[in-house]
Design a protein that fits this description.
Length: 424
């Protein structure tokens, strides 16, 4: 279900052909090639948000959700569910990416807003750096306004599921082999009203896979089995291309760092009235003892070997729109379903080299869900090679990036200026 069509910001095309020729150099000096691994650490922000089919306003400010001032990160992976209403027309008809593009515009504005940083007064500024200085009382520091440069390396929509990945501009050249895989688990077991959009890429020599999913809904006892089935289906059916060197991982769990997030739809296995009463008292521990996802995890029926951080925040579903009140807590309207609160929106991870530093929720009232976000410290390996110029070119990522770009540009058209659309 869904094509492998995606959107990304690319470096200017001139950069693709400005490769220094090795002609005239000593191509074959007698130097041994060494291959060493260097470790880098980056901050990774991951968030999921079911926006309930509500289109964002033009002036929606995402800075609070992304927490760019207090906790800036190097990589942002954002997943949405129900970016469009899950009507028959949207599920069966042609894909409308206007709303997804609007979200990307708002994300770009939030991430690339000039940010204040503190700097010692004796430190010199880089040539051409745009900044503004404000003196402080001790006279030893100043506030510098530093422009940000985040690039979208890949975005993909399937019906209402949308995932978009952003990296610092200086990291963009180290990102290779971006690819997508879509799995529909909805109507008839294949349509995209439920399912997943997965994205993979390699940063330096470490492979990443991000799975944004919307699993089966339903608050009745036994509905968790359908969610388990969706998760197993996504694991089995998600597949990525091998890449030009035929050495890239194909399946989700083959990647070095894997994060699964979305509206997983697991509920709390307690009577609705009891759940509401405990929510009002903020009795999270009792509620979590009856959380379906935790129960299924502990019994090994789903996500075996996966991890989730401690939950210290209120259930994220289901709210009245533009309200802090859960459905059913007030006098329900005629015919209104009394859905009990639940932690439907979750972030899980698998693999080494990931350390979760934050797991929290946002407080936007845009939809009936609250967004959930996590911040990770992630280790990334880089291969350091010392060789002659010709070997260096063919063994380094420079050739891979050129191959990637020519593959992406092959026979494609531009959706907007500087944001091309691709079809694998």
């Amino acid at each position: 279900m869904g094509s492998d069509r995606f959107v990304a910001d690319l470096q200017k095309t001139e950069a693709l052909i400005q490769v220094q020729s090795p002609v005239g150099n000593n191509l074959l000096p007698e130097t041994a090639t060494t291959d060493q691994k260097e470790a880098h650490k980056y901050k990774l922000f991951v968030s999921t948000w079911n926006v309930g089919g509500v289109a964002p306003s033009d002036d929606l400010n995402l800075e609070g959700w992304l927490d760019t001032d207090n906790n800036p990160c190097d990589i942002y992976v954002l997943g949405f569910q129900e970016t469009v209403p899950l009507s028959a027309g949207n599920v069966l008809g042609s894909e409308n990416n206007k709303i997804a593009m609007k979200w990307n515009t708002l994300i770009r504005a939030a991430l690339n807003k000039t940010r204040k940083t503190w700097k010692k007064s004796h430190e010199s500024s880089k040539v051409g750096e745009k900044q503004k200085v404000y003196p402080v009382k001790d006279g030893d520091s100043k506030t510098v306004l530093v422009p940000q440069d985040f690039k979208c390396i890949i975005s993909k929509q399937m019906v209402g599921i949308f995932i978009t990945v952003w990296v610092r501009g200086d990291l963009r050249r180290f990102v290779r082999h971006p690819s997508v895989s879509c799995v529909g688990c909805g109507i008839m077991g294949c349509l995209g009203n439920k399912g997943s959009v997965s994205i993979r890429f390699r940063l330096h020599e470490t492979s990443f896979c991000f799975v944004c999913s919307h699993l089966a809904s339903g608050g009745k006892t036994g509905d968790e089995v359908h969610r388990n089935s969706d998760a197993a289906d996504i694991l089995a059916r998600t597949s990525f291309p091998r890449g030009p060197s035929l050495d890239l991982p194909r399946k989700i769990l083959d990647h070095d760092r894997v994060i699964w997030f979305g509206d997983l739809n697991y509920r709390i296995s307690m009577p609705a009235a009891t759940t509401r009463s405990l929510v009002e008292k903020s009795e999270w521990d009792i509620l979590l003892e009856n959380d379906q996802l935790r129960a299924e995890l502990s019994e090994g029926r789903v996500f075996e070997g996966w991890h989730e951080g401690p939950i210290n925040f209120a259930p994220t579903y289901k709210y009245y729109p533009d309200s802090d009140n859960y459905y059913g807590c007030a006098q329900p309207k005629k015919g209104e379903k009394r859905r009990a609160p639940a932690w439907c929106d979750r972030i899980l991870w698998n693999g080494k080299g990931l350390k979760q530093k934050e797991y929290s929720r946002g407080e936007s009232r845009l939809s009936d869900h609250r967004p959930v976000r996590a911040v990770f410290n992630v280790e990334v390996e880089e291969s350091s090679r010392n060789s002659n110029p010709l070997q260096s070119f063919f063994l380094s990522d420079r050739l891979d990036r050129i191959v990637d770009h020519f593959e992406l540009f092959s026979g494609k058209q531009f959706l907007t200026e500087g944001i091309p659309s691709f079809q694998n």
